[in-house]
Amino acid sequence: MSTVDNTQLQERLRSARLVAILRGTDVDATVAAARTLLTAGVLTLEIALTLPDAEEAIAQVVQDAPGEALIGAGTVLDEGDVERAAAAGAQFMVTPTLSASVPHAVSLGIGVLPGVYTPTEIQRGHDLGSAAVKLFPASALGPGFIRAVRDPLTQARIIPVGGVRVDTVGEYLAAGAFGIGVGGPLVGDAASPGGDLEALAVRASAFVQAVRAG
Length: 214
Known about the structure:
Order of helices and strands: HEHEHEHEHEEHEHEHEHH
Structural class: alpha/beta
Number of strands: 9
CATH architecture: Alpha-Beta Barrel
Strand content: 5-15%
Helix content: 40-55%
């Protein structure tokens, strides 16, 4: 697998509409959780660089993932993070803020989802050339915020992250969300040693169905 640019990432996300966020504590557990998600039909994954030896996890997941999957790196804070994540095989980057990592990824032709919170940041994220923007924490703002922002910013591609539950997926998509990103409510404890992979598979199926219905 190779990196995707922002145009490619935008089209892939338009189709998938679901990004699973793995903020694991152990490489083996994170890889096992990623494989479970892929098997369950969640094909766009973000592996956070907060995981010790995250590059190893990214490399393993990329090696095993089906061709239609998209494996990215999360919590990409600076230019060095972009480069080491790409070297490990990450196909796109996700940042928590509009840090220097965003224009650096764009300059390298790597798709990026920058973290934003305000209308100004949403506009700035798009102006930088990103595929879409990650609204975080979305639960503090709710679906109504996305609907309101998209009244003047009609082309805004907003992916809410943070507190999105399976029963609120439809509300966010109905409000105009470009897709959704889900960490804890989907992954649970599965990316940690002893995590419940069977429960993860059940939750993954529920989220896939919710996105399809939305």
